[in-house]
Design goal:
Thiol Ester Dehydrase, Chain A; about 130 residues; single chain; alpha+beta
């Protein structure tokens, strides 16, 4: 693990099932995450992914790269363009800083309409 290392991209198909189950798993019962008609009434073209699902996918991306011993110490993300069903989000990451067994990774996730998520993840990878 070295500053400047790039994580390989991860493509995540954004399905209706992923959006709904992620919302349910995180106990987010807002209608915009499961009811297309109510989402449209509120100005969205369809349902969209909640931040907790995105947070989990970012964590999965980092731990998937660094392995089963990886420990997430901090995840700080900001949402942008929504993830709608039928799109694909591509996560990419760059190691910004390394201090011993701990790294800070800059994460970007883009979909067909722009940047869905940006942020940093601090991960410890014990020897």
């Amino acid at each position: 693990m070295n500053a400047g290392d790039r994580l390989p991209p991860l493509e995540i198909p954004i399905t209706r099932t992923l959006i709904v189950t992620g919302a349910i798993a995180s106990r987010d019962y807002q209608d915009v995450h499961h009811d297309p008609e109510l989402a449209r009434q509120k100005g969205s073209p369809d349902i969209f992914m909640n931040i907790l699902t995105t947070n989990g996918l970012v964590g999965r991306y980092v731990t998937g790269h660094f392995g089963p011993r990886a420990e997430l110490r901090r995840v700080a993300i900001r949402l942008g363009a929504p993830n709608h069903p039928g799109d694909t989000m591509v996560l990419t990451g760059t190691v910004e800083e390394v201090d011993g067994d701990t790294a800070t990774v800059r994460i970007v996730g883009v979909n067909g309409i722009g940047r869905h998520v940006t942020g940093t993840v601090t991960v410890r990878v014990p020897a």
